[in-house]
Amino acid sequence: PSFSDEPTGVAVNPASGDLFFSDDVGQDQIYEVHVGPDGQYGTGDDSVTSFATKLFGSTDPEGLAFGGGKLFISDGLGTEVFVLAPGPNGAIDGGGDDVVTHWDTSSLGQPDPEGIAYNGDLGTLFLVSNRRKWDVTETTTQGQPGAMIELSFVETHSPGGLAYGPGSADPTQRVLYLADRGADSEPGITNNDGRLFEIA
């Protein structure tokens, strides 16, 4: 998007259709794209608002997830998940009335959480760190550990994103999608080796 130099995560608010984008390169911002009256993304009647994550202590916003009326931000360098709930004004906007909580991820075995996804079936979260051959941790939305999804059968290099949704072959089956940025996310490497894994 034109408003972000490096969007690192995206989440949708299903109630409004608005999109949230995180940007962690110098800006440390969350952008919210408000879909205009035509109901189409990326057209002239959309509007964009933003807020700085440093206001509540997040200095490396990476992955985003939305569920249960809350926005979840995984902070890679801070090894935290920040949870934003709307305050009295009814919106998540980074203002002083947002209800912000956070919890540590390093104790869950996630030292650099870049990927986060909301499991709407169980009301839980999936987390993955940007480490080679790393596993996925499932937690409650308050950070209590749950299942560990062991990924030794997947040759990952730099996991950077998660999503939970309908399977590509069978939309009635829910699957976990894992984005791997590959080696080209490192300085000086230009090969395009990113991959997307679908885990049933």
Order of helices and strands: EEEEEEEEEEEEEEE
Number of separate helices: 0
Distance between the termini: 31 Å
- In one word, what is the shape? globular
Arithmetic mean of pLDDT? 90
Our estimate of the beta-strand percent is over 45%
Number of strands: 15
Q: Approximately how much helix is present in the residues? A: under 10%
Please summarize the sheet with the most strands: 4 strands, antiparallel
Low-confidence stretches: none
The helix/strand class is: mainly beta
How large is the radius of gyration? 16 Å
For the biggest β-sheet, the strand order reads 1-2-3-4
In short:
By secondary structure, the chain is mainly beta.
Provide structural commentary.
- This protein has no helices and 15 strands.
- The model has no long low-confidence stretch (mean pLDDT 90).
- The radius of gyration is 16 Å and the shape is globular.
- 0% of the residues lie in helices and 45% in strands.
- The protein has 200 residues and is an all-beta fold.
- Strand 11 and strand 12 (145-149) form a beta hairpin.
- The strands form four sheets. It has a four-stranded antiparallel beta sheet with strand order 1-2-3-4, with no helix packed on it. It has a four-stranded antiparallel beta sheet with strand order 5-6-7-8, with no helix packed on it. A four-stranded antiparallel beta sheet has the order 9-10-11-12, with no helix packed on it.
